[in-house]
Specification:
Blueprint lengths: L9 E5 L11 H18 L5 E9 L2 E8 L6 H4 L19 H13 L2 E7 L2 E9 L11
Parallel strand pairs: 1-2
Antiparallel strand pairs: 2-3, 3-5, 4-5
Helix pairs in contact: 1-3
Length: 140
């Protein structure tokens, strides 16, 4: 789906093949990966380097998406997960990708999204429990 945007991007894959399969809503997680990768492509102006990797940490499956952009300015970092906040030009971004992703990961999968950014590198980590708790019928 994003292949046409990746033609000038160096994509590095580092998947830990020993990570166990987890129970998850696959199509929802696909939306998370699409949002994060699309943001990374935009950040590197379609011509940088993006690394996608998986590993196991503290009994959690971790998916990392790292790009070599100029970094997210500190003054906007606290707004990244707010609805309709975007750093993209008008007509390019909706400001909904990260808020939707940040709801899918914790609410539907019991995980979390974290990020760190500095000049030259922005890293998003999605943590998903290997053995998620069953959803409570009282959670909504």
């Amino acid at each position: 789906m994003l292949g046409h945007k990746l033609k000038n991007v160096t994509l590095v894959r580092a998947y830990d093949r020993s990570v166990p399969r987890i129970m998850a809503y696959g199509s929802e997680l696909t939306q998370v990966w699409t949002n994060l990768i699309d943001n990374a492509i935009y950040a590197v102006n379609g011509a940088g380097k993006i690394c996608i990797g998986t590993c196991l940490e503290d009994n959690q499956l971790v998916v990392e998406i790292v790009d070599t952009d100029s970094g997210i300015p500190p003054e906007v970092q606290s707004h990244l997960f707010e609805p309709f906040f975007t750093t993209k030009p008008v007509g390019t971004g909706t400001g909904l990708g990260l808020i939707i992703s940040n709801r899918i990961v914790p609410d539907r999968h019991g995980g979390e999204i974290e990020f760190e950014s500095r000049p030259g590198e922005t890293r998003f980590k999605v943590r998903l429990p290997i053995n998620p708790k069953p959803p409570s019928i009282y959670s909504r």
